[in-house]
Specification:
globular; 5 strands; about 90 residues
Length: about 90
Amino acid sequence: MVSQEHIDDFSPILKEILNNEIDLGNEIIETSICWPKKESIIIILKAPFIQDYKKEFIKYRNINDNRYWKAEYFDEKTSHTLACKF
């Protein structure tokens, strides 16, 4: 399920990455809240990240777990996550 409210409230820095990925052809397949923290928002993209990003306070993690997702960018200030599938 995709919630526009989650997208609207998403980390501004991660939203820059999200918008770039969408412009390049990726798409949102799911949004959720409250994990790992109550204030967390997670947005999951359908395909792997198309580009690499380096942003202050944003941490890249290669999760590589089929039960979850391939990789993610985590905003250390907001505890929001932008993840991508395989």
